[in-house]
Design brief:
The structure is a single chain. The chain has 109 residues and is mainly α. The chain is built from five helices and no strands. 25% of the residues are buried.
């Protein structure tokens, strides 16, 4: 079963992709996988179970890098950890991913 990302996840991914375009090459953030994920999320692509499981792993692993930049009032001065997290849908993706994994488990998948 595949699921489409929420509007907030799409907004986060779009914002990060747009901000990335404004940066010089030396400051660009995001791995090829993170950029592909952001494009899928921003374009409302239905995400597979495998992709959702990878999102769970990334979002858990990278949360600290996101959180450490939240005190910076100027979003444009926040570091790559903040923006990379948004590529994957941001904080709003965490509950969404957890909900989808719960549904997979309930369905025995």
């Amino acid at each position: 079963m595949s699921y489409r990302p929420t509007a907030k996840m799409r907004e986060n991914a779009r914002r990060a992709l747009e901000f990335r375009k404004t940066l010089p090459p030396s400051r660009k953030f995001g791995t090829p996988v993170g950029l592909a994920r952001a494009r899928d999320i921003a374009n409302n692509v239905a995400l597979s179970q495998d992709t959702i499981m990878r999102m769970k792993s990334y979002l858990a692993r990278a949360r600290g890098s996101y959180d450490m930049y939240l005190k910076e009032p100027d979003e444009t001065k926040r570091g790559s950890g903040y923006w990379s997290y948004l590529l994957w849908g941001g904080v709003s993706a965490v509950a969404w991913v957890d909900d989808k994994i719960r549904k997979y488990r309930q369905a025995g998948e």
